[in-house]
Amino acid sequence: MTMTDQPNDTVGLEHMLRRRAFTLIELLVSIAIIALLLGLLLPALQKVREAAARTHCLNNLKQMGLACHGYHDTHLSFPPGYTASAAYPDTGPGWGWAAYLLPFLEEDNLYRQFDLSRPVEESPAIQTVLKVFLCPSDIVPEDAFVVSDAASVPIAQAAPSSYAATVGSDASECDALTGDGVFFRNSQIRIGDITDGTSNTVLIGDRAWAQTRGIWAGVITGGITRPGDSNVWPGATGSAPVLVLAHNNWINITTDADGGLDDFSSLHPGGVNLLFADGSVHFLRSITSDGQERRAFWALGTRAGGELIEGIEY
Question: How much is the pLDDT for 18?
């Protein structure tokens, strides 16, 4: 190679390198393609993630269903909605249905820390966060949160829950002496009492903490149930039994002036998971308007109403 050839080779190499680099237009087109692919991929990933979360939530409820039947086998009834030895309307000691299920959820050690004769708010054990009572789609605090009274004076710290048990149909209120469902104040409902059929009677379901700040432990004496951050009625309040109970009225309601605190709700798109008395779990779509579907949902809350259930799929 002569000395005169070398500059020409260098120029050719530089020219090849320049041609291999991206132009601005090519770069913008590549970015646009990547953005389009991500736009298509992310919704699919979100759907997969939500499907997994909904399945996890369903499994939580199935565990509760097995625990309910284990409790029934041992005590010949389902657990009480909450226990109250104080004169009505006082709620003490207030231990709730979920607390009574703990020995049947492999939480015997935690259960043995309770003195069920003492008010629920006196036990520091109620601050224990339990994954079985948390829906993975829900937005919940990592630790226990403050439950306060009507004047916002703190009473106790308690771990959150994404689930509530039903007192019955719309005619039953959470803070009443009784209910037409399976769980209410000092309830001891047996399977034989569910004459509507166990496959037609709801026990427990999604009640998002992001909508209603519920707990698993029970009814805090003098406590108030407050809305979660996603509730569109931030000034709404519910009675203390709403901390652990709901009724079959609406599903994912946003227009009810009481904040829908005592109704089933979830962050699952389009509905909630519900545990039935036969141990099955079904996804029911949101009910936010009056009609046959809503009345059928009322009927699914009663244990012995004798209603004909029509207009709802589950």
Answer: 53
